[in-house]
Write the structure tokens for this entry.
Amino acid sequence: MEGHAADNRKSAVHQGAEVAQFSVVGTRIRQPDGPAKATGEAKFAGDISLPGMLIGKILRSPYPHAVIKSIDTSKAEALPGVMAVLTPDNVAEWKTFDRGMKDMPLVAGGYRVPSEEAVVNKVARHYGDAIAAVAAVDEHTAEEAIELLEVEYELLPFVLDAEEAMQPDAPQVSDLAPDNVGKHLFYPYPEGDVDKALAEADLVVSGVFSTHKQDHCTQETAACVAYLDASGRLNVWSQCQLAHLGRRELASIFKMPVNRIKLMTPFVGGSFGQRGAVCAEPIAVALALRSKRPVRLVFSREDNFLGLESRTGFKKIDIKMGFTSDGTLTAIKTQMIGTLGGYMGCGPMSSVIGMTLAMGHYRCPNRFGEAHMVMTNTPVSGAMRGFGNDAMMFCIEQLMDDAARRLGIDPIDIRLKNAKEPGEIASMGLELESTYMEDCLQLGAEAFGWHEKRTQAKKDEGPIKRGYGMATMSHCTGAAPLYLEHSNAMVKFNEDGSADLTVHPAPVGQHIWGALSQICAEELGIRAEDVHIVTGDTDVTLFEYGSDASRSTYAIGGATLRAARQAKEQMLARAAEMLEVPADRLEVKDRVVVVKGRPDKTVTVAEVCYDAIYAFGGRATNFAGKQSFESTWNSPTYGAYFAEVEVNTETGRVHVPRFVTAIDCGKAINPMAVEGQLEGGLQQGLGYALTENFIVNPKTGVVETDNYDSYKVPGALDMPDSTVLIVDKPDPKGPFGAKGVGEPGMVGIPPCIANAVYDAIGVRLRDLPMTPERVLEALTEKTEGETETVRGE
Amino acid sequence: MKTVATFTVNGLPHEIAVEPHQLLIEVLREHLGLTGTKHSCGVGNCGACTVLVDGTPELACLTLAMEVRDKSVLTIEGLAKEGLLHPLQQAFVDYGAIQCGYCTPGMILTGKALLDDNPDPTEHEVREALAGNICRCTGYVKIVEAVLAAAEVMRKGGN
């Protein structure tokens, strides 16, 4: 197919019969930014060079908790080429902030996080906390200047473990968090009487689980370029996923009107939630303001591990689930203790989002959940793909498996029994618009060979024990009604019938420009390659909440669809005049406006647009649409996951040779991009489940995993044979039926693997990651279900 | 103490004064403006900075510039000829093998070294060749497909 990219051999799209016929939506277009990235032409923040530009470097605390008594900067400042030095004492002119940008309105209900962090900090709250920075003419000079800074520390007692931090005599991380509890939060949609329901249940399954801090490991590290131009405007190249909110945060810190800041989004080398916070920006901007020169600040890999938010780990997730004997879920009760690190940032809400999505996944009349989100002297926790749903689904889906086994029900059947139907209340407290979880289960089970594999006798493979597991999940599409959900788009037609779409998603690799061009082109009746994306500059784009919560295609696509419709209506009104028929008799397809039922009566989109722009006598106009979009509904995406594992009972290693993902993300705007999200999510989910582990030395607070030699992310040889299946049935509210697909790729993977491990060795692994040590330990103990009760036995 | 040395990069000779400790990645990015070579881990664990030196993949973040004087360095910018993408570049675009694009230059150049040496690799051989290149976006599926597809195009004599 001309203009379309290559088909994928293993994966498949299963269209429902009711799917409307589209011209552009649903096709496997090539991405508009592909050639720039394939040739090295694409500019990332660290690739930007400006005349007179300086290089920034950060000094980080070697202690987990310390007061910076003094910093002698004289030797560093005397070094030729050093143009600015920031210390805790000389950054007081700027405001403190919350790196998660939650010190200003973002979350519904007035939720806020205190502004506790300075550009560089007087009290280091974790190993690697930024305490000073320099800007110099080149990298070597900047590095040398950092080494010349003489710091006097006053060491403070520190606490690294969330449960220890809650003890009354524990060292205090923040004055604003009594007993170190940064936030005490509750599941926002409680229902029924959960204790009564558990007491009356035929079966209660329960477990105490833990999840860990996972680093995003974006291949590009955090980077920012900033300069104050001669007119006094601050120009910032920022990776922030939420560009307009990033601009607002910088305006607050540096006390400037927002329109004196021009925030530009270059290509971003991965994000996965990490750039939903301000990262390199505050220090880069401060160095630029202080030196009065352009400054480029690029984090080292170590800076990334130590200085950025990574996935919020949960020290303890205690869950109880009640069932009737026929497998009906009657109650879920959750208690969480999360580890926030030295600042609150995005971390606390991962508990609320996790509980909301996972506890609302199945129909369940009695629900209660509570979380203590605890500050510790460790690097900061935040949002990573899944945002707490990964942790909660790890628990819920293992307990679901436990219940199925105890009740003698097939794991698929118990999930179907409790699956919600459209019209019921979905996880986010809004009506469920669409769910095709049953399709996911059917397609996935068939492709995987679930029923055959589960029933056939296992052959003796010596120390290798083979197992098969499955899990489901649902995830939000945008975060309405809990977070701000405001997107905007502008569409204008040019005189040749091409169109420019102005939007501001974060181009972090999710193929969003292509998806938005498809939505725009489908509505305008032109081709995807006719749509140019204007983006990445807050001077030009309307307010955009940004790219997170699997929302870009849905919400920015929703705004795009509305703006395109508005521009199309203007164009069709003009075409109606030209063809002398009412506008409602017209339709537009593949660049041509046609009178319905009169295929001979046509005018091209180009002719109509030309007629409008090069017009005289008071008829001139430029067709353009501008629309806001605020989602007041939320259509969860559903997925089913199937894994085959080999557990080596001698080494404890878990190998995953085969994985099948089946997804209901509504109508797939570009199936190739959907596959890419799920295939990539599998790499992150596999690493989260098995090998990736952010290790803090329990005695010293030093982070021991600060690069890829100590922190193992899966490589090409570690990946399973992967099949992705797309249900491809439209959602009633999403643009052309689409739902979100960014996060679902990884959410269901850890419980799926854990369930397969159980099938292989009969041991429940309740702690992530499932390292060889833990597998061997569990095999030795081989005790499971320690807290369960089965009534009537 | 700087030394003026000749470096052949993407077919063109450059005379550059370099310090003995300067890394190849710095010379490529800061002196020649060839920012397609990406910095990521800085210790040779991720492959983002891969360039070809006399046809062999080398990690520019671990290679001293002086080690490659008088040798031929190929960076991602030197791969497309007269505006026409190399079959590997085209396949990466066509197969959706590029997401954020940060690992892409290193992946493509590693793939080129493989295919120059082994024009008809198996899937496993492709995975082995790419084992030192980390991608955080794609799960490697479409990257492996793209390399295999490019191999076929190249075997048939395409570009």
